[in-house]
Write a structure and sequence with these properties.
Length: 183
């Protein structure tokens, strides 16, 4: 672990910088190939997807467009509430567009299944999902991401965009928090 571990708050690094970098390139190569003849609109889900979006979009070779949505699902806790609210909607119409939703992590899948229903009702040409991480519970719901970075264990993780009470998003790695942080 390097200085980016923000002290002693992480117990374990699940995904280090080199692994993140390699996976982002792999995902970008797949998306480049699949959308070679299409105009692509990336839709990032704030705030968690911000690091994935920044790295993934720059690893692509085509000039994609980007838009953002902010939805609430967790509050300050560590469990999904199932209640989704749009805090910030897309700036542009997506009718007829090829949309790729860029997500940080799929856990219960509640947020994403709600979001996909919402986006599909707007008449896009296609909607697919790229998620950087996926937890086991996400396999139980009817959400099929086309691109998955890492399948991780059912633990609460922070870093690379993911927060605990808005902190730790700026970690360069993905890791689990030490118990003392919660208390
Ligand atoms: P879901 O609705 O349970 O799939 O989770 C939706 C959102 O909750 C994700 O996009 C993340 O922003 C957040 N989330 C889920 N799991 C974690 C985690 O382990 N750490 C931090 N945020 C998480
Ligand atoms: Mg998210």
């Amino acid at each position: 672990m390097d200085s980016a571990d923000l002290g002693k708050d992480l117990t374990e690094v699940l995904i280090d910088e080199a692994s993140i970098d390699a996976k982002i390139r792999e995902l970008a190569a797949a998306v480049d190939a699949d959308y070679a003849d299409k105009d692509l609109l990336l839709v990032g889900v704030l705030k968690g997807a911000l690091m994935v979006m920044a790295d993934f979009s720059r690893a692509l070779t085509s000039p994609v467009e980007m838009d953002w949505m902010a939805v609430s699902s967790y509050g300050a806790g560590t469990k999904s509430s199932g209640v989704v609210r749009i805090l910030k909607d897309l700036d542009r119409d997506i009718t007829g567009r090829h949309v790729l939703v860029v997500e940080d992590i799929l856990d219960s899948g509640l947020t994403l299944s709600w979001l996909l229903r919402n986006l599909r009702s707007r008449g896009p040409a296609s909607v697919e999902v790229l998620t950087f991480m996926r937890k086991p519970d996400a396999l139980k719901v009817q959400v099929e991401p086309r691109y998955v970075g890492f399948d991780i264990p059912n633990e609460f993780v922070v870093g690379y965009g993911l927060d605990y009470a808005e902190k730790y998003r700026n970690l360069r790695v993905v890791g689990t928090l030490a118990p003392h942080v919660y208390s």
